[in-house]
Structures are given as structure tokens and as C-alpha cells.
Prior knowledge:
Helix content is 70%, strand content 0%. The protein is mainly alpha-helical. One of its GO terms (cellular component) is mitochondrial membrane.
Amino acid sequence: MATPKNIQTPFYLGGLASCTGALFTHPMDLLKVRLQTTKQANASVTSVIKQIYQTQGVSGYYRGLSAALLRQATYSTFRFAVYEIVREKFKRKDGTVSAAGSIFSGVVGGAVGGLFGNPADVANVRMQNDGSLAPELRRNYKNVFDALFRMVREEGPMSLLSGAVPNVSRGVLMTASQVGSYDIFKDALVSYGMSASSPVTHFSSSVLAALIATTVCSPIDVAKTRIMNSKSKEYKNLADALITMTRTEGVSALFKGWTPSFLRLGPHTILVFLFLEQFKAAYIRYKTPDYAKL
């Protein structure tokens, strides 16, 4: 995501691009959460899609959208901003950054983003999964702010940090494997002659980054979702959740929802980086008219 020297793009562009992408991919994120929280071994993508439509209609696919947008506005804004700040420290004289530098930047950015985005993420998971619960078990949050206020009032302030350890862990893995690998793949493609400003380069890099990120993050993502959605202390911690799921449901449980995760993360990653690259280019053109001629 290189830009001309002396041009610093706004820190919030990563969050803005992520919110824009979430508008398109929220239904797949909801489907992923439903599959990850179910303990039915025979649950499938098609069966969950049908169940949502039959019980809630089309609007059911957009449950929790307000929480998803707040999550991206906090989590992604911080992770992209911190990633860029740290990555800048690793730049060589020729403007390139080593793979290790990109990955380390992703680790730091993901940790900060995961922590700041945790409250909205808890609300997001609960609101998305609410429709799959029996009526008497539903929380029926009106919107993300109602969810946050009620969590504090009914469960205490610490409920906002429910699942913070797996969430930060996922943020670390996600940002390192998604944002870090995007820059690694992009630099590699550019070194083979592709244009750094070409949408084809951005598209190819983001698809490869999405494949890696989905696979790397799946076990942590499933555990995070289970912990955040649990009403009781079913799991002691992240390690306990991973071990319990593996023992009672098999290793495949760690990859529940992989298909909707990729179907969501693939398009989301593509959209986010396409939007981000265009937002940055537009900002640079605004600040440096001559850049448009490059």
C-alpha cells in the first residue's frame, strides 16, 4: 500500500474501507457465526440459510449490522492505522519492507485493533446469533448501543471484554496473515512486473491473502465466537475452548464455518483493499494533482 513520499494518508481510511466492505459481506459473516455456534454435526450452509429465511425473512441476514459497522469502525481503524505506523519503521531506503517486517506490523496492529474492537465484537456476535436461539433465551438487543448498555447494566463492565484473549489473538493472526500477506504478495507481483496501482494487482493479492487468513484464523475464530456467545462459563479460557471442542466434536470443529468464512472474508478482503487503495489514491490526487499523471 505504498504512497508517494511525504504524503501521509488519513489514519481512518482503513476503517472506512472496512465499513464499506462490511455493508456487502455482512450476511456471510452472520452465516459464519450461526455455523460456528451450532453444535449440530450435520449443520450445513444451505440448511442455515433456509432456517434464517424461514424464521426471519430477508432482514434476518442483516441482523447485527449496526454492531458490525461499529466493530469495523473501531477494530479496523486501529489495526490498519497501527499497522501502517509500525510498518513505516521497517522501510528500507528503496521504500520496500521485508516479509518479517510486514508480519510483525500485522501482529502489533492486530493486537491493538482486537482490544479496542472487542466490545462491539461481543455485541456483533450476540446480535447475529440471537435469531437462532429459543424465544425465551434471546437477548433482543435493539441495536449495538442498546446491546453495550445492557451488557454493562446486566453483566457488568467486564462483559465488554468477554472473549478478549481469543479476539486479540484472532486480531493478531488476522492482521498478520491478511494485511501483512497482502503487502507481501503485492510486493512480489510488482517485482514480477505488475503495476502497483493496478486493480488486477490489488485483486490478486487480496484473494491470496484471504485464503491464508481464513485458514490461519479459523480455530481462533470458532473459539472466540463460542466464548463470546456463551451465557455460562462453558469454557475457562481460549486453550480450554480449543481442547474441549477438539475432544467433544473432533478437529473438524475448529474449521466449522470455513466456507462461509472464506465466502465472507474473500469478498470482504477484496473489497476492503480495493476501496482502501482507491481511497488512498483519491486522497493523494487531491493533495498532489501531478500524481494522477503517474
